[in-house]
Amino acid sequence: MNDYFDAEQKALRTVSPSLFRRRTLPAARLLSLAIPQWNLHNFLFFYYSQINLMEPSSEEEYETFIEKVERTIYLDNISNQVTEAVLKTALDQFATVKNVQFIPTYFNSCTIYAALVEMETAKQAQEIVKEISDSPFMISGMPRPVRAQKAKIEMFDDRPKMRREKIVCYWMDPSHPNFDVAKKLKNLTKKHAVEASFLMEKQMEEEEKLHNQQEVSLKANFKKYELIDSAQGDGTFRRLGARYGSSYNDF
Amino acid sequence: MHMSDHIKGKANASSENIEFKWGRKEQNDGKKHDRQYYRSFTYDGVDYFLYDSVYIWCEGQPEPYIGKLTEIYETKHLEKKVKVVWYFHPTHVQKYLRGTQTLNNELFLASGVGQGLFNVNPLETIAGKCDVVCTSKDKRNPQASIEEVEMCDYVFYKTFDVEKLILSERFPDKIAGVEVGFFFNQRKHLEIGTPPKSNWNSKVAGKSNSSSKFETGHCSTAVEDESDFRVPPANIGRLTISSTSEYHLNKRKLQDSKVEPEKPTKRPKLPWEERMQIANETGSLVLLENLDPSLTSLEDIVLDAFHKKASAKMIQCNAYSSPYNGQALVIFNSKDEADFAISELKTRCLMLGDLRPIVGSRPSLKETSKKSRYFGHLTIKTMKQMRSMDLRNVVSTSHFSQPNTIEFEMALEWCTLQMRLKFCWDALYKIC
């Protein structure tokens, strides 16, 4: 742990001082005025400690947020046509919907539509998740059912700042002994992102496949019903029944 | 004189939900009686004082304008107004630079009489405080320390005459009716609002009389010698104009292009999506990856790492997002800043707390016009014959499907697929 801290300190010291220009940090500026000689080390130390002193939001605010997360349902496998009103009416049959928020997707690679639906109590939310998971539930289309889960903190947009969230960031130069490791981690991140978007693509393909397959079978079923319907209409049933000596009502 | 009260009435439209409080009142002697002048106010958690430099947002402009508050008042219709004397960014007056070298963070103070000198804007257009330091050698200007110059957002030491369209290092006695002293540094009095000179109060009272007659550039102050001019040597090397040179502009050119900052209208109420699209088009949008997904104060990190104020947003997770790779989008102020950030992230490593090197790139955003197809919702076109179908009465109302329908069977196929894919995702994100 000590080594890690030392490395951090060292990295901080190697940061070019020019990076610290043009930063409006009133307290730091006052400090620099107070020190007659520009003392980079002192300043960096001060600066560094500034980073750690992030203003945490009040406990209360965080607690309220956690409660909100608890009573929120995450819904996906919904069509991009679904609106807030549709979701509200869909879930109002279980309990009163307090708020609906869609999770935006910005990237080409992501085609997921999802929404966060806030209920009145955590218990209601749990029950709805259970019911929707137990039997297929359709919203604004069929036969693909929606999927419901408990919402997670990271899905929310308006997260309050974490209590004591400690943010330390520093630049690592190529001269740093661990630079290669960091480089590898960066490449790994990129690789993982590509893998995820590949799986997303595959998922789309699978969905399309199932969609087309079901479309075909639905058409076939529909044709069958039409055939039966027309056979009933034009008296074929009656004639066949008479021929085989059974009543037409058996069908 | 152009009084551009162009946005009267719109002012109260955008002030909802933003904390606001007036500060000290100013005495109304000698001023217009239909308004109450103030010396300070608190807006969105920031205290503003008269003669502060501020960012002013203008709709449709990627970068805010910068100006100095010279009047703060409330009209009898309770509209909050500020009179802002503009600073010009070199890019605003590019046509009139004529090869003049400018510093990276240099501004020109507007002077003279005419459009572009100042505007009266709704107070809500203020987007934040800006630290502008005057590095003029003018003896009326309390010289800034090296530290101050290094730490500030912008510096200025030249004026731009909006009438004659010339740059000059001379400062007139009054700009827009305000004593030039208020445009210079106020450093010697740390408590903001205290007079730079003992007769400050009388000056304020007097300034309204002169608001209609502007005295333009007949200032004959001697320039102090170089030794007093405390600016980092690196900067001095880049100053190429001598203090007496003025740049006259080709009058013919002026006809087709009047210079003036466009009129700012409203504080940016643009939703994030729109700003993001604009940034994406201008190339100032950056995608950061490998962040801690639970991170909330990303803007502070951007500020710490790149020393740029940028708006940033964590991308909300969904059920398919990696639980380890938090992503965020950052809107930098310009393409250059974004380029710089990306290249820094490429050549060096920005380490975040728990040993995460951050990856930066340009995101490939979805085109808003193109709606992707949603699979899994089937309809039958010939509704007339639907009577005999199991799927008949359930067109788009939400419902649980019943086990004796085709729909139910198909729904189960989807459930199977969902489960299968869930296992795939779980396997992908599993740590071995």
UniProtKB/TrEMBL annotation, chain A:
What Gene3D superfamilies is this protein classified in? 3.30.70.330
Instruction: Give all residue intervals belonging to the RRM domain.
Output: 71-153
Q: Where does the source fall among the domains of life?
A: Eukaryota
This protein's UniProt keywords: RNA-binding
InterPro entries per the record? Epigenetic_reg_gene_expr, Nucleotide-bd_a/b_plait_sf, RBD_domain_sf, RRM_dom
Q: Which GO terms describe its cellular component?
A: nucleus; protein-containing complex
Biological process GO annotation list?
Answer: epigenetic regulation of gene expression; positive regulation of defense response to oomycetes; regulation of post-transcriptional gene silencing; RNA processing
What GO molecular-function term can you cite, just one? RNA binding
Question: CDD domains, per this entry?
Answer: RRM_SF (cd00590)
The identity of this protein, by name, is RRM domain-containing protein
Source organism of the structure: Lactuca sativa
TrEMBL record, chain B:
- Give the highest taxon in the source lineage: Eukaryota
> InterPro entries from the xrefs?
BAH_dom, BAH_sf
GO molecular function annotation = chromatin binding; RNA binding
Q: Where is this region: Disordered?
A: 250-269
Q: Where is the BAH domain?
A: 46-171
Q: Where is the composition biased (Basic and acidic residues)?
A: 253-269
> Know the name of this protein?
BAH domain-containing protein
**Species of the source:** Lactuca sativa (Garden lettuce)
What does the organism's lineage look like at the top?
Answer: Eukaryota, Viridiplantae, Streptophyta, Embryophyta, Tracheophyta
